[in-house]
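Progress report, Aim 2. The chain analyzed during this reporting quarter is listed below.
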Amino acid sequence: MIFSIVVHAPPYSSEAAGTALRFSEAVLRAGHGIYRIFFFAEGVHNANRLTVVSRDAINLQDQWRELIRNHGLDGTVCVSSAINRGIVDAEQAQRHELDGSSMHPEFTIGGLGQLIDASLNSDRTVSFG
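Predicted structure tokens for the chain:
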């Protein structure tokens, strides 16, 4: 079965982002596939590379990065949601004349078309947050 995951929640305001991460890991352990993980609205904060997490806290951003990198997943961040929250990749930073990127390089910027594409190419789309 092929899943797409939509993450609406930021990493530390609720359990939703962490639950989405654990669900994604379980899907892969069970031998299923993930077509795309789409970070939307406040969920784009999961891609923020400028967040500093205390040493005794779980770093969800790093865990998302590892999952995406280790499994070759498509981790897409909604461009409108991201820009409105100060999360930009190198291209968007240059376009908006900003000093630099604030998004982890494992993530990619995309639009709502990628969310529609994910739903069309998945057996199940599961949202968190």
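The longest helix spans residues 16-29. The two ends are 23 Å apart (CA to CA). These observations will guide the mutagenesis work planned for the next reporting period.
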